[in-house]
Amino acid sequence: MTLYPRRALVSSPTPPAQAAANALADAYDWVDIEKADVIIALGGDGFLLQTLHTMLEWRKPAVPVFGMNLGTVGFLMNEWRPHDIDSRLERAKAFKVTPLLMTATGIDGRIHRLPAINEVSLLRETRQTAKIEITVNDRIVLEELACDGILVATPAGSTAYNLSAQGPILPLGSGMVALTPISPFRPRRWRGAILPDKARVSLRILEPDKRPVSAVADQREIRDVAQVDIAMDRARELTLLFDPEHALDDRITMEQFLS
Question: Which residues are tagged catalytic?
Answer without folding.
Answer: 45
